[in-house]
Amino acid sequence: MSEETEAEAQAAGLSGNRVIVALYLVVLAVTALMGAIIGSIGLRDLEAVTFLGLVTFQPTPVGLAAFGVATIGTFLGTLLLLVVVVSRRYA
Q1: What is the pLDDT of residues 69-87, one digit of tens each?
Q2: What are the beta bridge partners of residue 56?
Q3: pLDDT digits (tens, 9 = 90+) for 28-52
Q4: Cα–Cα distance, 87 to 40 (Å, whole number)
Q5: Which three-class secondary structure string do you get for the chain?
Q6: What is the Cα–Cα distance from 39 to 50, expressed in whole angstroms?
Q7: Euclidean distance between CA atoms 33 and 4, whole angstroms
Q8: Distance from chain centroid for Cα 12
Q9: Which residue, 85, 82, 74, 62, is CA-closest to 27?
Q10: For the chain: N or C, fewer Cβ within 10 A?
Q11: Cβ(72)–Cβ(34) under 8 Å?
Q12: End-to-end CA, the chain
C-alpha cells in the first residue's frame, strides 16, 4: 500500500487492521450468541465438551457460548496471525 493510500485510509478511519479486528469480534459475538442459543434449547443428548483437553465446558448456555468463543477465537486467531506474519515477510 502506498503512503498516500495508507494516509487516506487512516484519515477516513478505516485501516485494514481495524476492519479485520472488527470482523473478528463480530464473528466471535455471533459464535457466542449461537452457543448460548444451542445451550438454552436444552437438548437432552448434549454432553460436556473439552477444549484442547484442557478445559471442560458444560452444556449450558454460558458453557457452550464460552466453548464456541474459545474454539473459534483460537483457530481463527491463529489463522489471522499466520496471514499477518506471511504478509509482512513476503509483501
Answers
A1: 999 999 999 998 888 888 8
A2: 50
A3: 999 999 989 988 887 777 788 888 8
A4: 41
A5: CCHHHHHHHHHHCCCHHHHHHHHHHHHHHHHHHHHHHHHHHCCCCCCCEEECCCEEECCCHHHHHHHHHHHHHHHHHHHHHHHHHHHHHHC
A6: 15
A7: 40
A8: 25
A9: 74
A10: C
A11: no
A12: 10
What cell was used for 7? Answer: 494516509
Find out whether 45 and 66 touch, Cβ atoms under 8 Å. no
Phi and psi at residue 49, to the nearest 5° = -115, 150
Which three cell numbers, joined as nine digits, stand for 70?
A: 474459545
Query: Is pTM, for the whole model, over 0.85?
Result: no
Nearest to 31 by CA among 59, 62, 65, 58: 65
